[in-house]
Amino acid sequence: MHRVSIYTHDVATQFTSHLFPLYIFCDITRQMVTRTIDLRSDTVTKPTETMRLAMAKAEVDDDVLVYDPTARQLEKEMARVTGKEAALFVPSGTMGNLISVLVHCEIRGSEVILGDNSHIHIYENGGISTLGGVHPRPVKNNDDGTIDIGLIESSIRNPDFEICYPKTRLICLENSHANTGGRCLSVEYTDQVGELAKKHGLKLHIDGARIFNASAALKVPVDRLVRAADSVSVCLSKGLGAPVGSVIVGTEAFIARARILRKTLGGGMRQVGVLCAAALVALQENVPKLVTDHKNAKTLAEGLNKIKGLSVDIASVETNIVYFEILKGSHITALKLGKIMEEHGILLMPDSSSRVRIVIHHQVSASDVQYTLSCIKQAMTGVTDENGGS
């Protein structure tokens, strides 16, 4: 694979001037590529040197026996940040969501109301049904990631008719909402859903894989964003940049039950402080960088929207995720564009034949964004047919 030059910014400055046509710029950079700009997801970040040093020096013990001091430190900090009583480190966000749903719906045949475009419903392998016997009740997600309050309430089963219906026990939200482009759920909306849950004796779980992104974008502390929730899962290996893991938070009783389920699912780990040490660095160093990620995403979106043949809903870019559409008549597919970009060391993720997802993270610079825009513009203007190239 070709790699993008460490001289990208200088090259872009020199060769995109009026003296050098853009196609020459792209041909030159093609010959001097040395690293990759990976825009497929914010899960692709590599551990920083500070993280690696912290991992090497981490104080550890057996976490299954609840003795690992670095794991305890991370869990205590995450409980504090989210305003909950306790926390538990788990290997992945999928496991975190699964454990949370199963704790709240421990009786098989329970039902959870969740968005039809949510990560739990689409991307987590149907685990709540397969492993927990939990019945999903999908309700339409709006373009901003919310679910109409009225639709949620009308989806709650009538407890007087349990002879036919599963029993509703849980509502799940996602903040920020990945499939709608990283849109953020407001405090007011989340509080309303929380009040509705309490009114009907239900629990509220928030898939907060990117809750720190939502917090940065809304300028609202994480603990306030999730105050109405009974449990939250928070990913450490997306925007925060840790190599592995998520944390689930809730009451002490909830976490006690979650710890048992983690072991049942094979997520009980021993000297896990090695991983937790990197996560602690991520909390300290990378949370402040999320604002820059969002700024770079907005810059990218605005630039893409100016390229002929592309369309971006600028208003939908609230955090670090950008979706763009390739318009009809552009004579190029998302897959073809991805292959052209890979030749320049830029990795994208086609979402459909005409839609592409880009995710910004702390290891993508402003100059990387400008280089990406230059190469996409060249691809869009230089491709003459479906089998052609730039």
Descriptive keywords:
alpha/beta, Aspartate Aminotransferase, domain 1, disordered N terminus, 13 strands, 390 residues, single chain, 4-stranded antiparallel sheet, 2 domains, 7-stranded mixed sheet, Aspartate Aminotransferase, domain 2
Q: DSSP strand (E) fraction? A: 15-25%
CATH level 1 name of the largest domain = Alpha Beta
Mind telling me the CATH superfamily name of the largest domain? Type I PLP-dependent aspartate aminotransferase-like (Major domain)
SSE string, helix = H, strand = E?
Answer: HHEHHEHEHHEHEHEHHEEHHHEEHEEEH
CATH architectural designation of the largest domain: 3-Layer(aba) Sandwich
Estimate the mean pLDDT confidence: 91
Q: Which stretches are poorly predicted, pLDDT < 50 over at least 5 residues?
A: 1-25, 384-390
CATH level 3 topology of the largest domain? Aspartate Aminotransferase, domain 2
Largest sheet: 7 strands, mixed
Assembly state (oligomeric) = single chain
Rg over alpha carbons: 22 Å
Q: Estimate nothing, just give the exact number of structural domains.
A: 2
**Molecular shape:** globular
* Spatial strand order of the main sheet: 2-8-7-6-5-3-4
Q: Work out the helicity level.
A: 40-55%
Distance between the termini: 18 Å
Classification by helices and strands: alpha/beta
* Distinct helical segment count: 16
Q: What is the structure about, briefly put?
A:
The modification N6-(pyridoxal phosphate)lysine is found at residue 238. With 390 residues, the protein is α/β, with parallel strands linked by helices.
